[in-house]
Amino acid sequence: MPFVPGRVQTTPLPQPQLENTITLEQALLRRRSVRSYQPVPVTLAALGQLLWAAQGISGREGFRTAPSAGALYPLEVLLAVSRCDELAPGLYHYRPLSHDLVLWRPRDHRPTIAAAALDQECLHEAAAILVITAVPARTAVKYGTRATRYVHLEAGHAAQNACLQAAALGLGTVTVGAFDDMALAEALALPEAVEPVYLLPVGVPV
Ligand SMILES: Cc1cc2nc3c(=O)[nH]c(=O)nc-3n(C[C@H](O)[C@H](O)[C@H](O)COP(=O)(O)O)c2cc1C
Q1: SS3 string of 149-168?
Q2: Element (H, E) at 84
Q3: Ligand 1: which residue has its CA nearest to atom 13?
Q4: For residues 113 and 99, what is the distance between their CA atoms, to the nearest angstrom?
Q5: What spacing in Å lies between the alpha carbon of 151 and ligand 1's midpoint?
Q6: In order of start, what are the domains of the chain with their CATH numbers?
Q7: Average pLDDT in the chain
Q8: Is residue 61 pLDDT above 90, yes or no?
Q9: Furthest CA-CA distance within the chain
Q10: Mutate to test the pocket of ligand 1, among 175, 181, 199 (most ligand atoms within 8 A of CB)
Q11: Residue nearest to ligand 1 atom 3, measured at CA
Q12: Is the pLDDT score of 1 beyond 80?
């Protein structure tokens, strides 16, 4: 486990909702990149639901909502929280097995994340940012040099799940790939084995 903070401060997430009135087809139709958000909070339940959609546990033996080559699960999802009444601003690590958050770094990380990503306005405005990171070595153990490809494909699966979940919740998001890898890794205080892959700012659409 690469994210081991000095002092473990855990926040349990509400159990994910497994039913909704919106169909998969409606969510597919509604999914659109949304880059402007109202300056209002999102609920912890909604954040938990998005994290579950991206990488949550959905079956026996730890199988997850998104496919993974060899079920090796190289992805680690962080959540940069800015506006949530039930959670202090900070950078959190999502733990799928216990469906909870562990505080990785305190304080609002939105400005430094945005600065590493061309100061894109959607990152400045977001109530929270899902940060998909990866430990490619987990996949390389079995797949060698194809690990890079597999990790990126898997991040796409996880991101699409989160996009569809956001559409189903009436939240806005956009997948952001334009950032400086080193600057973002530094902003997130990522351990050496962990690479940033994708950013998904989330908020209530304007
Ligand atoms: C790999 C990838 C990287 C992207 N990076 C960014 C980005 O850095 N900033 C941004 O605003 N949108 C980004 N997008 C979103 C695209 O601009 C968007 O998906 C496209 O305009 C189509 O619109 P739609 O998502 O509403 O269908 C990215 C999309 C993908 C798939």
Answers
A1: HHHHHHHHHHHHHHHHHHHH
A2: none
A3: 176
A4: 24
A5: 19
A6: 30-203 (3.40.109.10)
A7: 97
A8: no
A9: 45
A10: 175
A11: 177
A12: no
In the reported structure, the alpha carbon of residue 122 is separated from the centroid of ligand 1 by a whole-number distance in angstroms of: 12
Between residues 55 and 8, the one the model is more confident about = 55
Q: Identity (one letter) of the amino acid at 115?
A: A
Q: Using 50, 70 and 90 to split pLDDT, how confident is the model at 2?
A: confident
The letter for the amino acid at 18 is L
For 104, the 3-state DSSP assignment is strand
Where residue 170 falls among pLDDT bands split at 50, 70, 90? very high
Q: Residues lining ligand 1, CB < 6 A?
A: 32-33, 35, 120, 174-178
The burial class, CB within 10 Å (0-12 / 13-18 / 19+), for 17 is: middle
* Residue with CA at minimum distance from ligand 1 atom 22: 33
Q: Span 44-50, mean pLDDT? A: 98
Instruction: Determine the atom of ligand 1 nearest the C-alpha atom of 179.
Output: 8
CA nearest neighbour of 173 among 144, 130, 132, 138: 130
Q: How far is CA 166 from the centre of its chain?
A: 12
Confidence of residue 133 (pLDDT cuts 50, 70, 90): very high
13's tokens: 């997430």
